[in-house]
Amino acid sequence: MSAGASLPVARIEAAPPRRPGARIALLLALVALALVPVLASGIGAPFLIVTATRILIFAIAALSLDLVLGYGAMVSFGHAAYVGLGAYAVAILSAHGIHDLLVQSAAALVVCALFALVTGAISLRTRGVYFIMITLAFGQMAFFFMVSLSAYGGDDGVSLDHRSRVLGARLIEGDVALFYLALGVLAVVFVALRLLVASRFGRVLRGIRENAVRMEAIGFPAFPYQLTAYVVAGAIAGLAGVLLANQAEFVSPAYMSWQRSGELIVMVVLGGMGTLVGAVAGAAALIAVEEGLAHFSEHWRLGLGLMLVLLVLLARGGIAGLTARLRGGRAA
User: What is the reported pTM?
Assistant: First the structure.
């Protein structure tokens, strides 16, 4: 028995192969993103900065969902609740005179982590469609709770007087400064999650995704690993909510709706589940297509739906899978 158990453990301990080409591509992508404000100013299109900031913010939220959906096979249909809680942390603290971004971010992290800990401990007692439904139920509970808070706008939402301050200074009042802040947060979150999924924890999480019974048989119980991933994902989504509140200068319960959770799932599936790069690409593609189609017709959702259906049918593995196959074809 011990000999049979040693082989899976050795595989878990093995380090993933290093791919310097992928790192160079990521670095080039980061540099290209950093040049967006320069390009927008050069062509006289400041709205591109706002759109790019939205892409970065939702990419952070999509990365957090990819941790539980792509690597943990946990289909959370209430993930937008954490984005909304992070946004309301900014609105509620601002209403009480606390405008510091660091304090608001810390509060969002704590609230979202606690909410994920409680709801995750309950939700992970279920499997399959029951897990989907219970996460949806918790998300809707948070949604209707915020709707009932008339002191903070209720269903109409609440506007912020100004953006958050950093140590008393108004460093992110401009759209360009907020863009670079979102870019920096995205880079930190991406690197942190990349290290996490490449660690022993990440390999165990992927093993649980493939066969939870076998992983438990060799000494890796699924519940604590899945719950930890669930809490980490909720906290990261809360950071996205903090940035979203500052970008829009408005907070609404609509941020927490099940439709928003569905959009996050679409981003992850569109980009490619279980690939961090895919989550970012999916967020960028979905928002870019939305903005592009909206300029041509008010029925843009129909065109978006058709494009998504075709992509799912023709590009298995999403954008990341399609890119990998094209790269492999060129190499062959």
Answer: 0.89
